[in-house]
Backbone:
């Protein structure tokens, strides 16, 4: 039961956000990570106005996320903390080792 809130949040996001729906009903996945940041995996899924951005640091070192896609630009909420984050051409997010962000508009 330790991770119950984590999985409940992700399941609700998948159910409620069309960008995460299966097959043709969902959005395509686009890589949004700037070149040279190989320890980070960052992608956008978008369907209509629904957007989900996921940024994961698969490293034991701090990582820096820089968006390389205008499609990802916008204002988002972190689904776990409800903090508001803005992604634009000047955005830079520092991620601790093994950390992640899951954002939705």
Residues:
């Amino acid at each position: 039961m330790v991770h119950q809130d984590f999985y409940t949040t992700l399941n609700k996001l998948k159910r409620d956000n069309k960008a995460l729906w299966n097959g043709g009903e969902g959005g395509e996945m686009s890589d949004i990570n700037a070149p040279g940041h190989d320890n980070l995996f960052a992608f956008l899924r978008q369907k209509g106005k629904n957007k989900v951005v996921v940024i994961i640091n698969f490293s034991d070192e701090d990582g820096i996320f820089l968006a390389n896609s205008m499609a990802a630009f916008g204002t988002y909420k972190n689904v776990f903390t409800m903090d508001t984050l803005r992604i634009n051409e000047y955005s830079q997010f520092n991620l601790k080792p093994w950390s992640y962000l899951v954002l939705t508009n």
Notes: The chain has one domain: 4-104. The helical segments are 4-16.
